[in-house]
Amino acid sequence: MSHREKWGKGRMKVIGLSEFGGPEVLRSFELPDPRPGAEEVRLRVHAAGVNPVDAMVRSGKLEQMYQGLTPPFVPGMEVAGTVEEVGSDVDPRWGLVPGAHVVGFVDNAGRHGGYSEYLALPARSVALAPSNASAAETAGFLNNALTAHNVLDAFRLPEGAALLVTGAAGSVGGYLVELGAAAGLRVVAVAAQDDADLLRSLGAHVFIPRGPDIAQRVLEELGTPTDAVADAALLHEQIAPAVRDGGQIGILRFWDGDPGRGIKVKHLNVRERRTDRDAIVRLRDQVEDGTLTLRAAMAFDADDAVAAHARLEQGGLRERIVLAFDDEVWQPGPPGTDPLTWKP
């Protein structure tokens, strides 16, 4: 029985929570189908990415965002799906027509989140999916790639500048390495020793194993401080000494530290780019041309969201966890495939 047959016309299934807690609080809810408004498209969601921020929503770490809102609260900030309906005033040149395979960024709040069978999203948050990626792979890249893109845009480093990336083997860190290398930066990657080969393959010029006294070891290895640190590992004051006077540190979660020496601490939130369609399309294009490498997908059925979040909390994964909402998913097509016409 399909979800549509189970829930009934005009209703849809979401995975959410009515109270904060561990993975076990996630369960199915029934909500009305969304309809697209002006400049929006309605998607049938095939797969939704599962990210650490989703676990923060679930656990209550972001409870303040949900004050005054009525549960269920639905996590999820990235999806792969098929366009089902197009609202008014959507630019026809974007190719967002019924049947198109797309990737979408979800500015989740309250009952609006990626863990949903159907979504109405701003058309500017949606782009045609990479033709060389499956639905599951597509669902797991945009949030992290856009986060990395946002960091590098904020830094505005000149070609040849030294960029230090902590947590470089993680999903955000890996894209920081690839995008930094593509921009002509000298990328210094900090991660576990076992990830050295991976990071060199992604374009890191220098690899330094994580561990105690990391800032001192960076300075010893390079002989000079770096121009900026993209701190995906949240090392904060531990890594600040590796930045030159007047340099920059990009922070992805709250830190109220002040490293001094004229260092600019930039608190960055990917939601700032939620409708930056040019950036989203560029990242899609960089997947297609090989600049960005997609991680393999570890797919869980949406009904197994508890297990998916439990696996996320175990850590140590290089695959991306996604929730699959149906079996009608697409596979990558040959080079040059038109995402509007490709059928596996």
Automatic annotation (TrEMBL):
GO molecular function terms attached to this record: oxidoreductase activity
Source taxon at top rank: Bacteria
N-terminal signal peptide: none
Keywords: NADP, Oxidoreductase
Presence of keyword Aminoacyl-tRNA synthetase: no
Annotated ranges, domain Enoyl reductase (ER): 21-323
InterPro entries: ADH-like_N, ER, GroES-like_sf, NAD(P)-bd_dom_sf
Entries under SMART domains matching the protein: PKS_ER
Known EC number: 1.-.-.-
Protein name: NADP-dependent oxidoreductase
